[in-house]
Structures are given as C-alpha cells and as structure tokens.
Amino acid sequence: MEQELAALIAGMRADLATLDDARRFFHATYLRTTEAIADEIDRGGFVDNPWVSRWDLAFARFYTDALDADRRGDAVPGPWRIAFGAARAQPDQPPLRHVLLGLNAHINYDLPQALLAVITSEDFDNPSTRRMRERDHEHVDVVLRQRVGAEDAELAAVSRVTLLDRLMGPANRMASRRFLAEARRKVWHNATVLDRARRRGAQTATLAVLETLCEQRVRDLTRRGPVLITLARKGFGVTLPASP
pTM (2 decimals)? Predict the structure, then answer.
C-alpha cells in the first residue's frame, strides 16, 4: 500500500479508538471503505491507480480536517456541523442514520471539492483524460456497492435489529446501492460546475451555494422518521445550478 494512504488509514484507526459518541458509526464505515479502495488500488483495479490514490487522500482529508476541527471546538463546514451535532444531540438514533448523515456530508460536499483538487481545468478539457477520470470515478461506485452487504452486517452488529429491520434488509441494501449511484452522477455534475466557476474566479461563491444545499439536505435527514424514505423522496445528493 502506498505510504501516505497507509498513514491515513492508521490515523483513522487511531481516531476510531478514541471516538466515544455516534460519530464513530460513520467513521468506522468510512475507514472500511477507505481500506477497500486501497485494496482495489493495490490490485490495480483502476485505470490510473496513482491518480486514484491522490484523489482518495484529498477526499479523506476534507473529512479528517473537519473531524479534527470539531474535536477542538473549531468551526466546521455547514453539512458537517449538522452531522456532528446530531451525533451529540441524537445519540439514540439508529447507527444507520448517523452513517447516512456522514455520507451525505462527505459525498455531497467534500467529494466535488476533492475531484477539483486533482483534476485541472486542462484535464476537464482533454476528452481522453476527462473520460479516464470519469471511469475511475464510476469504478469507485462499483467498489462501494460491493461493500453494501458487509456494511449492513457491520451496522446490524451494533444496532437493535427488529423483525421489520430484517424484512426490510434486502430493500434497504438495494436502495443504498441506488442512492450511491445517484449521488456520484450528481457529484460529477457539481465538480464540472465548480470547474467552470474556478475558470471565471467564482469558485468561492459557487462553493458557498453547494455548502448551503448540502447543509439543508443533511438537516432534512436529522428529522424523525425513516431516513431511507426521506432519501427516496428527496434524493441522495444535491445538484448545483449550471450558473449559481
């Protein structure tokens, strides 16, 4: 495993051992998916494995920086403020809800920024490079879909599982796979909108629009009621207007 990625995973494992509230549910899920991506890189499963490694590091740092800031009591971006706040204020909520709060904050808000950090405007303009990046972006979704069943089992091990939960399990796993695919399509769109804003010097303003949209989506998911039904009604992910 590449040295920086190995150090990231080691740091996340150390952080997990010290998290004593509901933030640990998303953290543990994200740690396992980061390990799965690292394994796929080691296997040579991507078109451009070194690029995916750089992207994965950039992506993870948005979360770990937010977590570190939250633990210090410093300000964090709006989507993470809602997700972390819910972990403290709603510790009785099912672990799945806290995982989905973190996923919405991280995928919807952090991932477009991570793509921008490792894809230049020139790369977006080069059809061959752009398609290669897009293919690897899509392949990450394949790796994550393969993790859904295992993550369901991990959450069941730390949750109070009812008969209804067992009956709904297959539907929930199917929904999770659909939501991930939906979110990734929207993330790619949002990254291209941010790139256009970067070219005209409007990236900060456009990012502020994305933060507001993502914060509202995470806030929606903190309300009482089945979280997957909320996602089915409102969708997983947010869409930046073409010219925010």
Answer: 0.87
